[in-house]
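Re: [ENG-882] Designed sequences occasionally contain unexpected residues at chain ends

Forwarding the minimal case from QA. Structure tokens:
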């Protein structure tokens, strides 16, 4: 009102008064400080800078995270900061196991600080999973206490190595969106985390996260949108583990969650139709050592529609996309 009065007193043009008011409104908007306004010249300079940064390995590794899986790296171009990734699968296919494999890779291969937010397993159950994965010891044998002295020594070695890595674990049985956001921000400030796994979205207590006016699918979509915004704000990768619906094609509770993510990876068992499609495309038999497929169901800046053949060795929670290792 003061600014309008000043404009009137000075016989200022309405356009100039309007522009001044717009500037004041944007200044007082909490989100406006995070917006960027680029002129054509600014964008042209940024185009050159963005390309040159990707040509520089040090700068590229600062923005992109790679795994031990060559085929996934090739199809995805790496996991890029600011992205929300959905990892889905049907029940019992191994989505949490693959998530832990990716946690290991980002910490060990890309040497980044990682946060694993868990809502299902106890701390000891998670410890046993890392024992099996890193020491390559049978998960069944660990549960039954049937490991040898040699295997126990191996576990001691990998545990000592693990203590030097940056894999942080937080268990939240009654997971809510507010808890997730608060812990991610706290760990970003404390340990400069760059990769976060939320395992899993289906166990999030949505009744306490939003009002009762929204339907379940709307709440899940909003959660995905908020996590995407958080990934952008903190310049991190957030991987959200999700369950597939009973039809095996859509995401449980909200198929529209995929609209908010940058990359949707779906893990499925190899079926008869997959073997037929593979033969039709290659005129070769799909070998039995490939027992799961990682599908790129959505990819904003990666190879959309890519399918990575993998072997999942469930007793050691290990995945591989290497043919010799799969054999």
């Amino acid at each position: 009102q003061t600014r309008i009065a000043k404009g009137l007193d000075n016989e200022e043009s309405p356009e100039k008064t309007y522009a001044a008011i717009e500037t004041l409104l944007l200044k007082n908007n909490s989100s406006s400080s995070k917006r960027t306004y680029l002129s054509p010249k600014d964008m042209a300079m940024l185009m050159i800078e963005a390309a040159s940064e990707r040509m520089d390995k040090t700068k590229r590794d600062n923005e992109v995270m790679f795994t031990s899986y060559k085929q996934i790296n090739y199809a995805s171009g790496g996991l890029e900061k600011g992205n929300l990734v959905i990892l889905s699968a049907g029940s019992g296919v191994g989505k949490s196991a693959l998530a832990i494999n990716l946690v290991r890779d980002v910490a060990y291969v890309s040497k980044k600080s990682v946060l694993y937010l868990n809502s299902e397993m106890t701390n000891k159950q998670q410890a046993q999973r890392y024992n099996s994965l890193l020491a390559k010891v049978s998960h069944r044998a660990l549960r039954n206490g049937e490991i040898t002295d040699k295997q126990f020594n191996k576990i001691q070695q990998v545990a000592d190595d693990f203590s030097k890595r940056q894999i942080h674990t937080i268990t939240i049985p009654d997971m809510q969106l507010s808890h997730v956001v608060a812990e991610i921000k706290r760990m970003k400030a404390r340990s400069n985390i760059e990769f976060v796994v939320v395992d899993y979205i289906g166990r999030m207590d949505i009744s306490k996260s939003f009002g009762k006016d929204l339907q379940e699918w709307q709440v899940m979509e909003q959660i995905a949108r908020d996590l995407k915004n958080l990934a952008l704000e903190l310049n991190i990768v957030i991987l959200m583990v999700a369950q597939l619906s009973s039809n095996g094609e859509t995401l449980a509770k909200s198929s529209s969650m995929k609209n908010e993510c940058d990359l949707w990876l779906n893990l499925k068992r190899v079926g008869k139709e997959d073997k037929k499609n593979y033969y039709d495309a290659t005129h070769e038999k799909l070998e039995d050592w490939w027992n799961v497929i990682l599908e790129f169901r959505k990819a904003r800046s990666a190879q959309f529609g890519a399918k990575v053949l993998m072997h999942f060795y469930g007793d050691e929670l290990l995945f591989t996309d290497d043919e010799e290792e799969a054999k």
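QA comment: On inspection the terminal residues look reasonable. Residues 221 and 256 are 6 Å apart (CA to CA). Proposing we downgrade this to a documentation issue.
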